[in-house]
Task: structure prediction
Amino acid sequence: YTAPLLQQLGQLQSAVGNHYRAVDRFEAREGLPFTDDRSRLNLLMMKARSLFHSVQPMEAADTVREARGLVENAKALSRYTPWVLNRLAFYLYAAGRFQAALDVYSEYEGLSVQSADPGSSWNWVRHHTMKGASALGGGKLTVAESELEKALALSAELDASSPAPFATPGARGRAARHTPRDHRIVVLGLQAQTAIQLGKLQNATEKLSERRALLSKRFKNGMRPDDLAELAHSSYGLAMVAWKENDYSTARAFIEEGLVYMDQFSEENGTLLHPFMIELVRGYAALHFYGKLPLESLELNLRKRLEDLYGALCLRNNPRWEAERFILGL
Result:
């Protein structure tokens, strides 16, 4: 009974979010015999999921590669190939292996597997989104542009009242169903990043403006704190476009708008340390030092924001923030 007991303990730990413990249980179970390849495949995929949630995406991808070997060598498991490829591509993307993820997403698409279940359309929307994101991360901008346009077109065909078969962060940490409008917000952000890198600044402005309007409406309806951070990020994107066009006054207005959103977010969450807050404060400082905007032209107190952020960073001995501590300390 040891093998099923270890697997059940792993599943229990995973269900309550103790993924590090779950990995230990799954690895202990992995050292025992299996009755067939299907049960081994099931364990490997559960282990990979817990590795991913333990912030070990490359280890998760390696585990799924092992699972892929199983489905390729056992004819009875061939129907699981799309599932395995989808997870492999996602974990590779999370690990920053964008070209490898793009290759696997292309392979998955080549299978032309479209099931008849209600989530099938959503699956293809998510597939083109992730393939586009992988292409963007890997610098394949024309591929990203094409894939994200497909994702947006497919999401527009979905029934607005038909949520995805997966959740999205909701208010106060609760999960909420992911709607076509939620997905449009995601894709618009990726399209804006692609357009900026392609130098299509007008297109980027249009995408970011639409995204900001949708986020604002969603925040008013649901009061999701994370939407404040996303609104700030959209404002930063618009400021970046204005910066590239040497319109420093407009860039200043958008950065100040973003900082106000992040102030609300920080008050809600009790911390200044968020990547969007850091990039906005650095952008605000850049407008003064490089854009030559005098301090008196800034609506917000730049000096105090730099001091407060630097102080918060120094209180956290986190290597993740080392570069920011050095730059702000100057």
